[in-house]
Prior knowledge:
alpha/beta, Purple Acid Phosphatase, chain A, domain 2, 6-stranded mixed beta sheet, 24% helix, 29% strand
Amino acid sequence: MVGILVALIVLLALFIIYSTLWVKYSFTQLGDPVKENVTLVQISDLHGQTRFINGSLSTLVNNVNPDFVMITGDLASTKEQLDQVLMEIRQIKCERLLFVPGNHERYGVVQSRLQLCSDQDYEEILRTIQDANITVLSNRDFPVEIGDKKWLIYGFDNSLYGKEKLHISAEKLQNYDVIIMLAHSPSIIETSLHQHIPYDLLLVGHTHGGQIRLLGRTIGAYKNYHVGLKRIDKRKHFYINRGLGTSRLLPIRLACSPEIAVFKIGL
């Protein structure tokens, strides 16, 4: 009986380790499948985690040869972690690395407690990220031409509620063929619907997919949020990424593997 109990505990421990540290790819095709696609990778909520059972972060991202890498916040919880994460991101082979801040860029750990950073410390964190050849989009747009199409990537700063601003009119947005919106928190969906913001794909993180899922359902504070892709209408797609790391208070995952989201957009 004791042997069976020990075996069950070992199996559970192995399952938790696998659920926490084995990264899974989620692939989504937008538009008609064609020979030529633009490949977007979204990573989110690393919280200092860059090494996994099936490879390092850079290796896993480089495996899909991305045209864009979009990072939707919460790189780290401490300055030491941030330096390590940025060192790993520098190994990613992609010229277009884009970042929007999360709540953990706004908060730091002081004596084991989260504390809001000063404006000076926050700006220093963003400069450190920018110095790693990562474009920081804090309520900023990033226009780019791909082939004969005009793309716009816009990054919202909703690292604190009420910080998100759209500094481009909905009318001007209509001039773009492809619009990608980035934010950290899924609360941005309310803003986008209220302001009738057009987009093809809105990418967020923050929820970690709940980290604990039972029978395909999220357990805990984010149980009312979906995981993965949701179609809002014929054009709009809203994606909530499970993230790669774990929260400080709950350092495990269960049936909610860390995720790298890969989007293929046909030209």
